[in-house]
Amino acid sequence: MHRLDNGKPIRDAMSHAGLSIERLAEKTKEVDPAGYGISRSAVGHMVSTGPSGRGEFERRSADLVAKALGRPVTDLFGPTPT
User: Fold this and answer.
1) Cα 75 from Cα 52, distance rounded (Å)
2) How far apart are CA 77 and CA 80, in angstroms?
3) How buried is 35 (Cβ within 10 angstroms: 0-12 exposed, 13-18 middle, 19+ buried)?
4) Per-residue pLDDT tens for 9-55?
5) Residue 31 to residue 33: CA distance in whole angstroms
6) 66 and 73 in contact (C-beta within 8 Å)?
7) Does pLDDT of 81 surpass 90?
8) 21 and 57 Cβ atoms separated by less than 8 Å
9) Which end of the chain has fewer CB within 10 Å, C or N?
10) Spatial CB neighbours of 5, under 8 Å, sequence gap ≥ 6
11) What pTM does this model have?
């Protein structure tokens, strides 16, 4: 899945929820049925606007972040551009 607007919707949702990168990573573990969640590093790649930012993520990661933020995944991520 492709993060929308260079990760701005994710950053905005984190800010609204009062979550840091570390806390969002923890929350993904809480909402993951397997209990693994995603790493702080992966969350950092989702929200970074600099060279460490990435555009593409696995569907599972996108779903966990959206669920942890209480947002529809389509508010934060879109299909991978072709």
Assistant:
1) 22
2) 9
3) exposed
4) 999 999 999 999 999 999 999 999 999 999 999 999 999 998 888 98
5) 6
6) yes
7) no
8) no
9) C
10) none
11) 0.93
- In sign, the C-alpha dihedral spanning 40, 44, 46, 52 is negative
Q: How far apart are CA 82 and CA 67, in angstroms?
A: 26
Distance CA 80, CA 26 (A): 26
What is the per-residue pLDDT for 40? 96
- Separation of alpha carbons 17 and 20, rounded Å: 9
DSSP 24-36: HHHHHHHH-TTS-
SS3 41: helix
Pairwise CA distance, residues 21 & 68, whole Å: 12
**Which pLDDT score, from 0 to 100, does residue 80 have?**
79
C-alpha distances in angstroms, 56 versus 18, 62, 70?
Answer: 25, 9, 21
